[in-house]
Amino acid sequence: MRIANRGGRAVLLGQGVALDVATASSGRFGPDPMAVYRAWREFAAWASGIDVGADPAAQPVEGAGLDAPVPAPQQVFAIGLNYADHAKETGMALPEDPLVFTKFPSALAGPETTVRLSGDRVDWEAELVAVVGEGGRDLPATWDAVAGLTVGQDLSDRTVQNRGDRPQFGLGKSFAGYAPTGPAVVTIDELRAGHDLDALRIGCRVSEDGGEERVLQDGTTADLVFTVPELVHRLSAVVELRPGDLIFTGTPSGVGLGRSPQEFLKPGQVLTTEIEGLGTIRQTFTA
Questions:
Q1: Cα distances (Å, whole numbers) of residue 271 to 30, 89, 252
Q2: How confident is the model over 2-24, as pLDDT tens digits?
Q3: pTM exceeds cut of 0.85
Q4: E strand intervals along 91-178
Q5: Do residues 3 and 11 make contact, with C-beta atoms less than 8 angstroms apart?
Q6: What whole-number distance in Å separates Cα of residue 181 and Cα of residue 34?
Q7: Which listed CATH number (3.90.1150.10, 3.40.50.720, 3.90.850.10, 3.30.1490.20) goes with 76-286?
Q8: φ, ψ (nearest 5 deg) of residue 151
Q9: Around Cβ 181, how many Cβ atoms within 10 Å?
């Protein structure tokens, strides 16, 4: 199933249509997009039996009509240097343990947005984002605790991130709109049915003034240093993972900081991020 957020209400997505969860369940599940994760096991069992496309209550929907699928997580984790080729382009050794920082939830945005650049050194980072289902502590390294996956961008102001003599990862990556996600949370069973869950194609491309798109990143999640199940296990050994928490799992090579010469986002550019089986998100940048 694909779970999205339309106008602040949880919906199930079909081919070009959306079905309101509260309406379709006759109030069994409320409209709050976060509520489905707080009752994840019950909700998943109900939703798995719904044929969205055949339901007469389903309404047409486009990406521009969707908001962040998980709009108010209690915790947002992000993992640094989690692709070997990205670590190489930054000149850093592979981490022995996950490098964890946070993006503040106020940075979250939907799949089709306009983002105001905070400076002239804002970078792109295409990311697979895992959404926690039931959560807990000391979880095994399996997919069981993961409700689904979605597309994300870890937009990063490199000036703020590296300002002073200590890095400010959280602040540099948490300006308004710097955590776009969507278009939907795709459950593991649906994704596994048609794709190799451990080798999803991931990347992003940029265009400007309506011109031809240029590829910036093109990788695969097979290159992850720590897989999603391993991250769930490692994180839950320290903190309690809670329903609806997000884990930005890192980015492949091709970021602007690692290029020669370095390259950063500019006003007027449109960034499209795509992950196999999950869909695309698109950001337009202004000064």
A1: 34, 21, 16
A2: 999 999 999 999 999 999 999 99
A3: yes
A4: 99-102, 108-109, 112-116, 122-123, 126-132, 146-153, 156-157
A5: yes
A6: 15
A7: 3.90.850.10
A8: -90, 140
A9: 29
